[in-house]
Structures are given as C-alpha cells and as structure tokens.
C-alpha cells in the first residue's frame, strides 16, 4: 500500500474547504449581499442560491392530486472568480471555498481560502465555528483499454458476480480515523460512462468542533483533515496508479 507523498501531477479536479458556523442574530440576505459586494473585485460573478418548496396532496376518495410550489427566500450566494477557477459559497450558517482545475498545492489553496473566510468573518461575525471539512474530488484516467483488472489500479475494487461483466460501478464508504475518531470521511468511488477506465475518487473529510472564528485550532484541524485525506487517497489506489501521477 503506497505511503502519502507529493505528486507532481495530482488528479485533483476540485478541492473544497468548508466552515459550518452558528450565525450571529439578525444575519439575513442583505448581510450576505454585503459580503458578496465586498468580494466583488476578486469574485465578480454572483449567483443566488435559491430554495424551492413544494407539497403534494393526494386525496384517496376522489383520486385527485394537488401540487403546490413556491420559490423561497434566497439562502446565499455563489461567487466566482473571472476565470471560474475559484468559487466561494456564502450562506448564513456556512462558508466554503473551492478551487477547480490546476490545483496549486495546499499552501496557496489554503491561504486563498483563509483570506476569503476572513472577509466573511469580519462582516457577518459568526458566533462560533461548529464544523470543518475538507473535500477533494479526483478524476483518474487509468486505462484507455477495456476490459481491465480493477485491482491493478484500486486497492478496494468492486466485484462483479460470476458470469457477468461490470459496465459501471458506484461504491461509498463511511470511515473514521483510528487515532482520532472525531475525524470522519466519506469515500466515493465511481466510474464514468466512457470507452476507457475513468474513475472518480471523492474523499470528503470533516470534524465537529466548537471554537471561536479566529481560533488557532482552525488551521490545525484543517491540517489534520488534509493529512487524513491523503492517507485515505493513497490507501485507495495501488502503486501502479501512483506512478501515473508522479
């Protein structure tokens, strides 16, 4: 099983860090709009996060169905950089930062995330942080030829039954860390419908916390989440797969 190491060409397609917060009293959509406005130079594209509500009422006696739907109040914003590579999600109880394509490495990624978090924290003044998460979505083109032995590439490959040929797969595991059971993760393995072996490896790590928004605990927890994610990634793939991205 490969040990975590630096990859010069990592298959990361999106990296995300997320803060779950307890909002300050009185935070509303106007408050979130102020955050979007403050960040507009760096993130000029603003998209509202809209909620929809609906009900279905079935009357057995008359065999009629009544449906209602309405657009609820907007919950926040998706803010995008001009090149579309960075996305900030702003809601009353959640802040997240995403980097798509050409992942620059943890240091640059995390510094950009913390800069945007600082603006959110300054304007909305959340009461506390109650959850931290780090998610990495990897897209790996493993073979141009089919069929292949999945065990050549994945440590925990899905199995098909005798007499059948697997056409696609989707597996999900929920795990916790042996050393710190508060560190939890969801690991999704899925194939794409192509004429080659393309696998999505989606690792979503999180930890429930209770700390002030400026606490030194925050970067420490994110380092733990990143290390946990790295261990899970390298334990999910074989040495052959690692060599493809060195």
| SS content category | alpha+beta
Proportion of residues in extended strands? 35-45%
User: Biggest sheet: strands side by side, in what order?
Assistant: 2-5-6-7-1-8-11-10-9
Poorly predicted regions: none
Shape: globular
Quantity of strands, as a count: 11
Q: Helix share of residues?
A: 10-25%
Number of discrete domains:
2
Rg over CA atoms, rounded to whole Å, is: 21 Å
Quote the distance from N terminus to C terminus.
16 Å
How would a textbook summarize the main sheet?
9 strands, antiparallel
Q: Could you give the order of the helices and strands? A: EHEEEEEEHEEEEHH
Helix count equals 4
Overall pLDDT metric: 92
Brief descriptors of the model:
globular; 4 helices; two-stranded antiparallel ribbon; alpha+beta; single chain; 246 residues; 22% helix
Can you put this structure into words, describing what you see?
- By secondary structure, the chain is α+β, with helices and mostly antiparallel strands.
- The chain has 2 domains: 135 residues, no CATH class; 74 residues, no CATH class.
- The protein contains 4 helices and 11 strands; from the N terminus they run βαββββββαββββαα.
- A hairpin with a 4-residue loop joins β3 and β4.
- The radius of gyration is 21 Å and the shape is globular.
- The model has no long low-confidence stretch (mean pLDDT 92).
